[in-house]
Amino acid sequence: MSRQLTFKLWLEFEEVDPGNWDIENEFCNIHVDLEDGRYYGLNVWTYKFLQTAIDDDKKTGQNLSGLYQKPPDLFVKELTRECIEQTIQDLLKIGDLEKVLNPSIYDRGNNK
What we know:
The protein has 112 residues and is α+β, with helices and mostly antiparallel strands. It is 38% helix and 21% strand. A hairpin with a 4-residue loop joins strand 2 and strand 3.
């Protein structure tokens, strides 16, 4: 039986202009405060927003006209409290957020 980890969430879409966010095609910032004192600020995108960002860059010329995107910290299906709470709970079961969400692509100390 796995233990439920306690955390508090601050969700930008609940605090800034609530009710006027496209929950399936948008991005936002969130804060995750853990009971042990650790806290995280994450940039969260919906799956659909990735295509929106690419299309916007094609129009504006940013990121070599959409050739690449600097990814967010996390992708989710929708910007709702329920979706994000479930996601954070699941990620915390796997490990520390900084290790689960931002693993190093090259660890100089462990060249194998």
